């Protein structure tokens, strides 16, 4: 969508955002984009959605300068998803959100100097030497507010009480699915609170994109959630194509939709396997990995890749589909259908599975929306959040498929959503595979791609939730600002809510059922 921002100033920002939430029912905070707008100053763009009508809007505000600092009122009182989103903006741009009770860096070390996404950030190696000491840690965090004289005042809050017992889950624990650290406060086996620590593999992709041409940025999406490489690249090429006004052939749209669904099956098979493995059920993992190989074989014959899929280009596809692709895809669909029931027989319907997942990591519908728990995790609580239905792209508006929603609102329901979505992906593929139209697989572009001035946001339904890309172009061959909305960041931000009062073993089970991938979060 092309952004037509609602312009808000510092004085009316809090009241107008409250009206958008409470009166106009924009109850889903899609993302917060922090940006250095040059002469305008530092500010944020908020993308919001009305979950009843699926209408979207964007609001922009420029922060108020207070001495050397820039401040914006927090929206955490309106959307709990703002917790980590505002901390991310503070981390990279230094904007302090007034009233946010936990203004700590999120991805970078606490002793990192400067704010990398500011345009005046000094990137020279001598000013960015990697620290060789352990990261300093504190049991306190800071809340910033303005006093009556307009001065910035800091209030210290304790993260942990003196008698709190804190256990670190990760960053090297195998069930964390990568280098994620969850600082967990426990009372015996009962969880009292969870503080996520991110950024162990942060690579600064959004900053890198500002010095890359548009085709060069495409390689980065495959290195995020490598199980959703097709969908994530689809979002990036989609936002560029929308900005440039490129009209794609039906052949391109059909092939992209099929590839997206093959990639979704690939993602869900690994999810179903690792969910079982995290609960010590190795057989189910081996079954899923066995069948995932068949999916990768079908994709590889066209894309040449298995984990990294360098297939979508700005304007179409890298190459046409392999001559055997249609037949092999039909054979794959026929093979996979009975296999999904096999996963249920060996693991999903096991009495131990039900005991480990039912009632574990609960999150009701209203909380799922408030915490932006998108994807299968939110649909398990009945939230109709499928981007393919609400904001169709590709040819999703031309195929019949069911949006899987359940009401269990727990880890078992999340597992079952993935099971049922594999069947729906097969339904989509089977409707399209025999009807791929003739036409161009690539719409030729100029040697140097430039996007006209403007701001756009394009979303896709990834394997674990909504993945979106925001683009601010000044008409150059490189983006002025490119922001990725990861699937896993808001999922991680909901751990504290889901796990309070649960047991330590339930943390592992909940993490298994949430389906997050660390490179997607860290970027």
List keywords for this structure.
4-stranded mixed sheet; about 20% strand; globular; about 525 residues; 3-stranded mixed sheet
Care to describe what's here?
This protein is α+β, with helices and mostly antiparallel strands and 523 residues long. It has helices at 10-22, 82-93, 205-209, 214-221, 229-244, 250-278, 282-303, 325-348, 351-357, 365-370, 376-379, 387-390, 411-432, 488-493, 495-499, 504-514, 518-522; strands spanning 6-8, 28-36, 42-49, 56-62, 64-66, 69-73, 95-98, 140-146, 152-158, 165-169, 181-187, 190-197, 312-313, 316-317, 454-461, 466-473, 481-485. The strands form six sheets. Strands 1-4-3-2 form a four-stranded mixed sheet. Strands 5-6-7 form a three-stranded mixed sheet. Strand 15 and strand 16 form a beta hairpin. Helix 5 (229-244) runs antiparallel to helix 6 (250-278). The chain is globular and about 70 Å long. It is a peripheral membrane protein. Residues 12-124 form the NADH:ubiquinone oxidoreductase 30kDa subunit domain. NDH-1 is composed of 13 different subunits. Subunits NuoB, CD, E, F, and G constitute the peripheral sector of the complex. In the C-terminal section; belongs to the complex I 49 kDa subunit family. Keywords: Cell membrane, Membrane, Multifunctional enzyme, NAD.
């Amino acid at each position: 969508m092309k952004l037509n921002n609602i312009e808000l100033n510092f004085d009316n920002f809090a009241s107008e955002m409250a009206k958008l939430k409470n009166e106009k029912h924009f109850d889903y905070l899609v993302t917060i984009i922090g940006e250095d707008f040059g002469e305008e100053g530092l500010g944020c763009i908020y993308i919001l959605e009305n979950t009843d009508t699926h209408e979207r809007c964007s609001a922009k505000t420029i922060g108020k300068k207070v001495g050397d600092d820039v401040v914006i009122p927090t929206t955490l009182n309106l959307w709990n998803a703002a917790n980590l989103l505002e901390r991310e903006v503070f981390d990279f741009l230094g904007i302090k959100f007034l009233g946010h009770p936990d203004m700590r860096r999120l991805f970078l070390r606490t002793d990192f100097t400067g704010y990398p996404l500011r345009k005046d950030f000094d990137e020279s190696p001598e000013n960015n030497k990697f620290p060789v000491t352990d990261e300093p840690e504190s049991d306190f965090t800071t809340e910033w507010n303005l006093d009556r004289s307009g001065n910035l005042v800091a209030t210290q809050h304790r993260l942990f009480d003196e008698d709190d017992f804190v256990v670190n889950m990760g960053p090297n624990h195998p069930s964390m699915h990568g280098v994620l650290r969850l600082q967990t406060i426990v009372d015996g086996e009962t969880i009292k609170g969870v503080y996520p620590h991110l950024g162990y593999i942060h690579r600064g992709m959004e900053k890198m994109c500002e010095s890359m041409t548009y085709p060069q940025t495409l390689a980065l999406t495959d290195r995020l959630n490598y199980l959703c490489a097709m969908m994530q690249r689809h979002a990036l090429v989609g936002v560029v194509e929308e900005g440039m006004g490129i009209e794609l052939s039906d052949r391109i749209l059909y092939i992209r939709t099929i590839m997206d669904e093959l990639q979704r099956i690939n993602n869900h098979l690994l999810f179903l396997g690792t969910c079982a493995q995290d609960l010590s059920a190795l057989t189910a993992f081996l079954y899923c990995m066995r069948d995932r190989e068949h999916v990768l074989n079908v994709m590889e014959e066209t894309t040449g890749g298995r984990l990294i899929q360098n297939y979508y280009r700005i304007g179409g596809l890298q190459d046409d589909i392999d001559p055997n692709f249609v037949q092999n895809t039909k054979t794959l669909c026929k093979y996979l259908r009975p296999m999904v029931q096999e996963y249920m027989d060996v693991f999903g319907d096991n009495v131990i599975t039900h005991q480990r997942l039912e009632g574990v990591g609960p999150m009701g519908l209203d909380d799922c929306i408030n915490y932006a728990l998108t994807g299968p995790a939110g649909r398990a609580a009945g939230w109709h959040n499928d981007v393919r239905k609400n904001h169709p792209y590709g040819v999703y508006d031309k195929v019949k498929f069911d949006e899987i929603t359940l009401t269990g609102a727990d880890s078992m329901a999340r597992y079952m959503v993935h099971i049922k979505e594999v069947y729906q992906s097969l339904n989509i593929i089977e409707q399209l595979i025999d009807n791929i139209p003739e036409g161009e697989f690539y719409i030729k572009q100029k040697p140097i791609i430039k996007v006209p001035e403007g701001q756009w946001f394009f979303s896709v339904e990834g394997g674990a939730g909504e993945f979106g890309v925001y683009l601010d172009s000044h008409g150059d061959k490189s983006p002025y600002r490119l922001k990725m909305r990861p699937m896993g960041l808001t999922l991680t931000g909901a751990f504290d809510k889901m796990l309070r009062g649960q047991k330590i073993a339930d943390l592992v089970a909940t993490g298994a059922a949430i389906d997050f991938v660390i490179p997607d979060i860290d970027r």
